[in-house]
Sequence to fold (213 residues):
Amino acid sequence: ALLVVNKPAGVAVHGGSGVSFGVIEQLRQARPQAKFLELVHRLDRETSGVLLLAKKRSALTALHEQIRQGKTDKRYLTLVLGQWKNQKQHVKLPLHKFTTAEGERRVMVREDGQESHTVFALHKIWPEFSLLEAQLKTGRTHQIRVHLAHLGFPIAGDAKYGDFARNKELAKQGLKRMFLHAHMMNLTHPLTGETMSFSAPLPPDLQRFVDKL
Fold:
Protein backbone atom coordinates (compact mmCIF):
# COMPACT_ATOMS: atom_id res chain seq x y z
CA ALA A 1 0.00 0.00 0.00
CA LEU A 2 2.86 2.36 0.76
CA LEU A 3 6.23 3.36 -0.54
CA VAL A 4 8.39 5.54 1.72
CA VAL A 5 11.54 7.18 0.40
CA ASN A 6 14.25 9.35 1.91
CA LYS A 7 14.23 12.15 -0.66
CA PRO A 8 17.59 13.86 -1.29
CA ALA A 9 17.74 17.67 -1.35
CA GLY A 10 17.68 19.28 -4.79
CA VAL A 11 15.20 16.79 -6.27
CA ALA A 12 11.67 17.96 -7.05
CA VAL A 13 8.84 15.66 -6.01
CA HIS A 14 7.21 16.00 -9.42
CA GLY A 15 7.92 17.51 -12.83
CA GLY A 16 6.90 21.06 -13.77
CA SER A 17 8.27 24.55 -13.09
CA GLY A 18 11.44 23.95 -15.09
CA VAL A 19 11.90 20.37 -13.87
CA SER A 20 10.92 17.70 -16.34
CA PHE A 21 11.53 14.78 -14.03
CA GLY A 22 10.67 14.54 -10.35
CA VAL A 23 10.61 11.74 -7.78
CA ILE A 24 7.18 10.51 -8.88
CA GLU A 25 8.14 10.33 -12.57
CA GLN A 26 11.40 8.52 -11.75
CA LEU A 27 9.62 5.97 -9.58
CA ARG A 28 6.91 5.36 -12.16
CA GLN A 29 9.57 4.76 -14.78
CA ALA A 30 11.51 2.45 -12.45
CA ARG A 31 8.36 0.47 -11.61
CA PRO A 32 6.48 0.01 -14.89
CA GLN A 33 4.50 -2.87 -13.33
CA ALA A 34 2.95 -0.53 -10.72
CA LYS A 35 -0.61 0.24 -11.79
CA PHE A 36 -0.95 3.09 -9.31
CA LEU A 37 1.64 5.38 -7.74
CA GLU A 38 0.83 8.79 -6.31
CA LEU A 39 2.44 11.26 -3.92
CA VAL A 40 0.63 11.39 -0.58
CA HIS A 41 2.14 14.81 0.26
CA ARG A 42 4.88 17.09 -1.05
CA LEU A 43 8.28 18.31 0.06
CA ASP A 44 9.96 21.42 -1.34
CA ARG A 45 12.77 20.68 -3.79
CA GLU A 46 15.44 21.78 -1.30
CA THR A 47 13.95 19.81 1.61
CA SER A 48 15.27 16.30 2.22
CA GLY A 49 13.70 13.44 4.13
CA VAL A 50 10.67 11.21 4.56
CA LEU A 51 8.36 11.24 1.56
CA LEU A 52 5.27 9.06 1.36
CA LEU A 53 3.75 7.55 -1.80
CA ALA A 54 0.63 5.44 -2.14
CA LYS A 55 0.53 2.29 -4.27
CA LYS A 56 -3.26 1.97 -4.08
CA ARG A 57 -6.00 4.54 -4.55
CA SER A 58 -7.71 3.32 -1.36
CA ALA A 59 -4.48 3.95 0.56
CA LEU A 60 -4.12 7.45 -0.91
CA THR A 61 -7.70 8.40 0.04
CA ALA A 62 -7.32 7.00 3.56
CA LEU A 63 -4.01 8.82 4.13
CA HIS A 64 -5.41 12.11 2.82
CA GLU A 65 -8.27 11.69 5.29
CA GLN A 66 -5.79 11.07 8.15
CA ILE A 67 -3.84 14.19 7.17
CA ARG A 68 -7.05 16.27 6.99
CA GLN A 69 -8.11 15.10 10.44
CA GLY A 70 -4.65 15.81 11.87
CA LYS A 71 -4.04 12.15 12.68
CA THR A 72 -0.59 11.97 11.09
CA ASP A 73 2.45 13.41 12.84
CA LYS A 74 5.03 15.06 10.57
CA ARG A 75 8.22 16.46 12.06
CA TYR A 76 11.14 18.34 10.58
CA LEU A 77 14.58 19.31 11.83
CA THR A 78 15.73 22.80 10.95
CA LEU A 79 18.65 25.04 11.83
CA VAL A 80 17.70 28.69 12.25
CA LEU A 81 19.72 31.88 12.65
CA GLY A 82 19.56 33.36 16.14
CA GLN A 83 18.92 32.06 19.65
CA TRP A 84 15.47 30.57 20.05
CA LYS A 85 13.96 31.38 23.44
CA ASN A 86 11.24 28.86 24.32
CA GLN A 87 11.57 25.14 24.88
CA LYS A 88 8.23 24.66 23.13
CA GLN A 89 6.29 27.23 21.13
CA HIS A 90 3.00 27.06 19.24
CA VAL A 91 2.95 29.38 16.23
CA LYS A 92 -0.41 30.16 14.67
CA LEU A 93 0.07 32.72 11.90
CA PRO A 94 -2.28 32.81 8.88
CA LEU A 95 -0.52 32.33 5.54
CA HIS A 96 -1.40 33.91 2.22
CA LYS A 97 -0.15 32.53 -1.12
CA PHE A 98 0.67 34.88 -3.98
CA THR A 99 2.70 35.01 -7.19
CA THR A 100 5.46 37.58 -7.72
CA ALA A 101 5.75 39.69 -10.88
CA GLU A 102 8.40 37.17 -12.03
CA GLY A 103 5.86 34.37 -11.68
CA GLU A 104 7.40 32.87 -8.54
CA ARG A 105 5.15 31.28 -5.90
CA ARG A 106 5.53 33.01 -2.54
CA VAL A 107 3.85 32.91 0.84
CA MET A 108 3.48 35.63 3.47
CA VAL A 109 1.86 36.05 6.86
CA ARG A 110 -1.39 37.97 6.35
CA GLU A 111 -4.52 38.33 8.47
CA ASP A 112 -6.87 37.02 5.78
CA GLY A 113 -4.60 34.05 4.99
CA GLN A 114 -5.20 30.35 5.64
CA GLU A 115 -5.08 29.20 9.23
CA SER A 116 -1.66 27.65 9.90
CA HIS A 117 -0.20 26.00 12.98
CA THR A 118 3.37 24.82 13.67
CA VAL A 119 4.77 23.60 17.01
CA PHE A 120 8.49 24.28 17.48
CA ALA A 121 10.64 22.47 20.06
CA LEU A 122 14.19 23.55 20.86
CA HIS A 123 16.73 20.73 20.44
CA LYS A 124 20.06 22.50 20.73
CA ILE A 125 21.42 26.03 20.85
CA TRP A 126 24.69 27.73 19.86
CA PRO A 127 25.70 31.42 19.99
CA GLU A 128 24.42 32.08 16.44
CA PHE A 129 22.12 29.16 15.67
CA SER A 130 19.31 27.04 17.09
CA LEU A 131 18.35 23.51 16.05
CA LEU A 132 14.59 23.11 16.19
CA GLU A 133 12.11 20.34 15.61
CA ALA A 134 9.03 21.59 13.78
CA GLN A 135 5.79 19.65 14.02
CA LEU A 136 3.22 20.49 11.37
CA LYS A 137 -0.35 20.76 12.58
CA THR A 138 -1.45 22.11 9.18
CA GLY A 139 0.34 21.56 5.87
CA ARG A 140 0.49 24.89 4.07
CA THR A 141 3.00 25.71 1.33
CA HIS A 142 6.35 26.88 2.82
CA GLN A 143 4.69 26.93 6.26
CA ILE A 144 7.76 26.26 8.43
CA ARG A 145 9.96 28.59 6.35
CA VAL A 146 7.55 31.53 6.47
CA HIS A 147 6.60 31.13 10.14
CA LEU A 148 10.27 31.15 11.13
CA ALA A 149 11.28 34.03 8.83
CA HIS A 150 8.34 36.11 10.11
CA LEU A 151 9.45 35.53 13.72
CA GLY A 152 12.97 36.71 12.88
CA PHE A 153 14.58 33.24 12.88
CA PRO A 154 15.12 32.48 9.18
CA ILE A 155 16.21 28.98 8.21
CA ALA A 156 19.95 28.78 7.50
CA GLY A 157 20.48 28.56 3.75
CA ASP A 158 16.88 29.38 2.77
CA ALA A 159 17.25 31.10 -0.61
CA LYS A 160 13.65 32.38 -0.68
CA TYR A 161 12.86 33.63 2.81
CA GLY A 162 16.28 33.64 4.46
CA ASP A 163 19.11 36.06 5.18
CA PHE A 164 20.88 36.22 1.81
CA ALA A 165 24.13 37.78 3.06
CA ARG A 166 24.45 35.15 5.80
CA ASN A 167 23.59 32.39 3.34
CA LYS A 168 26.64 33.36 1.25
CA GLU A 169 28.88 33.07 4.32
CA LEU A 170 27.28 29.76 5.29
CA ALA A 171 27.91 28.36 1.81
CA LYS A 172 31.62 29.08 2.28
CA GLN A 173 31.43 27.23 5.62
CA GLY A 174 29.93 24.18 3.95
CA LEU A 175 26.16 24.73 4.17
CA LYS A 176 25.22 24.95 0.52
CA ARG A 177 21.47 24.48 0.87
CA MET A 178 18.49 25.12 3.11
CA PHE A 179 18.74 23.32 6.45
CA LEU A 180 15.30 21.69 6.49
CA HIS A 181 14.86 17.93 6.77
CA ALA A 182 11.67 15.88 7.15
CA HIS A 183 13.03 13.55 9.81
CA MET A 184 9.94 11.71 11.04
CA MET A 185 6.42 10.71 10.11
CA ASN A 186 3.96 8.74 12.21
CA LEU A 187 0.73 7.40 10.74
CA THR A 188 -1.77 4.58 10.83
CA HIS A 189 -1.37 2.05 8.03
CA PRO A 190 -4.30 2.82 5.68
CA LEU A 191 -5.24 -0.85 5.21
CA THR A 192 -4.20 -2.69 8.39
CA GLY A 193 -4.73 0.08 10.97
CA GLU A 194 -1.26 -0.58 12.38
CA THR A 195 0.60 2.39 13.93
CA MET A 196 3.75 3.10 11.92
CA SER A 197 6.70 5.42 12.35
CA PHE A 198 9.25 6.30 9.67
CA SER A 199 12.41 8.28 10.28
CA ALA A 200 15.33 9.50 8.21
CA PRO A 201 18.60 10.62 9.84
CA LEU A 202 20.07 14.02 9.01
CA PRO A 203 21.84 13.82 5.63
CA PRO A 204 25.68 13.86 5.83
CA ASP A 205 26.00 17.48 4.60
CA LEU A 206 23.69 18.81 7.32
CA GLN A 207 25.14 16.55 10.01
CA ARG A 208 28.69 17.70 9.15
CA PHE A 209 27.66 21.34 9.45
CA VAL A 210 26.06 20.79 12.88
CA ASP A 211 29.09 18.79 14.09
CA LYS A 212 31.33 21.77 13.28
CA LEU A 213 29.29 24.22 15.35
Remarks:
- The mean pLDDT is 94.
- Helices lie at 23-30, 57-68, 143-150, 164-172, 204-212.
- Residues 17 and 102 are 13 Å apart (CA to CA).
